[in-house]
Amino acid sequence: MNDNKLENNSAFTLVRQDNGIAHLVMDVVGDTMNTLKAEFAEQVADVLAEIKGDVSIVGVVLCSGKQDSFVAGADIKMIDDCKTKAEVAALSRQGQMILLQLEQLNVPVVAAIHGACLGGGLELAMACHARVCSDSNKTALGLPEVQLGLLPGGGGTQRLPKLVGVQKALDMMLTGKQLRANQALKAGLVNDVVPNSILIATAEKMALAGSFKQAPTFKSSLVNKFLEGTSVGRSIVYSQAKKTVLSKTKGNYPAPAKIIDCVKTGMEQPSAKGYQIEAEHFAELAMSDVSAQLRNIFFATTAMKKEQGIADVMPKKITKAGVLGGGLMGGGIAFVTATKAKIPARIKDISHQGVSHAIKYSYDLLAKKVKSRFIRNSELQKQLSMITGTIDYSGFKEVDIVVEAVFESLELKQNMVVEVEQQTKASTIFASNTSSLPIGKIAAKAARPENVIGLHYFSPVDKMPLVEIIPHHSTTGKTSDQTISTTVAFAKKQGKTPIVVKDKAGFYVNRILAPYMNEAAILLLAGEPIDKLDKALVDFGFPVGPMQLLDEVGIDVGAKIGPILQADLGERFAAPTAFDKLLDDGRLGKKVNKGFYLYGKNVKKGLTHGFKQKGKQVDTSIYALLNINPVGHLSANEIAKRCTYMMLNEAARCVDESIVRNARDGDIGAIFGIGFPPFLGGPLRYIDNIGASSLVEQLTQWSQQYGERYTPCDALVAMAENRTSYY
Fold first, then answer.
1. What SS3 class is residue 224?
2. Which of 27, 169, 225, 601 yields a CA-CA distance of 20 to 30 A from 529?
3. Active site members
4. CATH class of domain segment(s) 2-286
């Protein structure tokens, strides 16, 4: 067996085996993961020429030289290096041509896939004549380009539908979802799944045999044969996909519609046309502002993964964690600690019922994964055994961190700190999941204030990616750098994106959310209908409207945060007093089936403005309760602007007061914490986009018309005068 390294720095090596098979090994020098880069084009061309010129090679196995990944995708920086649409299109065409050459090799090429096979990596694998993957839970196949506002530009939109059928291909590309090994086999994306230990040997056998068993691509029911096998059937699939996409994206994201167009062209027209349209659409999307913003978010979160809480202060290892409170938050925190961070979590609640509720929360989430064959039942048992419960402090002696998620009362939380300090070791961190109480006050009675920190999760914990980490600095002491770094590392292990924020009322996320929510409430009282308000902000790009959000979070929770913000930050945080009537009426939102919308058994009877409506139905009795005549005279654009600009003004204040460390953290916090529209890049990038001077002009005009809550903050005024920006 001989090994021929093309050049010392080439990412591709040809390793000839005695049986006539050559291993084409991809191993990008100096990187932990393989990514496809523009400069590889020449290297690949060389290696393909070598395979063609060597008659002793009877088959090729394409594999990765990295231990736990195949190819993670293409290097997105390539796009940023392009200045024009033509350059991007050329980049896409170049990728397509190389993969076409691979596909046209006159010997069988089999991809042996272990680990991540995503984006350009899957496009590379699909250009091979067959694919076999390992059954490892690290193996995942997908085309996630849509999440960056792009589409697969290396032939992915053309090859995937031919392998797995139009419906499955659209489902994968429009959502960016990843398939596990068995799902990929079932879909027909791979020809076989085997243990990693025999992956290469199996791929060699397949290449030597030269004939590949193809998994069934789609269920051959009559309906499916019609939808996949006839142009009439496929056109139904395309138009249905378009409808669904539009209802989800509200037209704010151009990539999904272009993906559908690429698939349609490839299926209904000559293949050359399909590839040409793919390259053109890819170039258009790459140069769009939407994709630029989504790529910015990707680069920002990648950079954040590499940062520590405090530079040069190494985190301490956490081996066991305690959780106080068995409610929804406590249950969610225990779940991500055990299943994502792989750290045993012990829940303490005052009642056995609280503990069992919290454990059932995790059981239900895991059972869903078993049902969808994402994990095996044995894995469920293993993960669940990492969560235990107690009604006293037994088992807390050894925990390294205690996350407190009890009722939002300062006195209770202060007592918790004292109790935990008595029951744990001297180094144990006390992290409070409070949404509004200052951490310095929670630490007021602490014997070890340096171990006390805020760790604010968002609900539901298993889904929301953000956490706010809040060190305190008070008369009694301050959070140590070691505690900050350790807590940041802990949150990252839970799969979270942490931002470190200052200990001031509302921290960052709730502070910028409050003026936005208050503005929506003020507009409601001025006669704008509930569903119109929500629709305006969903169409603008938020995942849910402000009224529905209040129902979800709990109207009582919102009512608690308001006065805390008002006391610390002033009158602009005053919530409309009319809202007290909602609480007096027992309207706490979804949890009691009574809020702005109808829930439970009331839904069927509900009519909105005299007609049955799809989706959520407004509880119209709220209008009489608040003495509102819901006629509404503002345009959707005006509603969205007035609510959003209040948030922008507050975000600018937060950067100015160093509530967040920088504009990047402010943007990521708003996108991941409250679903600020990602295609706008975050509130601070959006300010740059509007321009500080036009924002100040608009706010000033409104402050004269509607009141001083609109007064632009000093930081924005200074930016307008000096013509500066955040980025």
1. helix
2. 601
3. 468
4. alpha beta
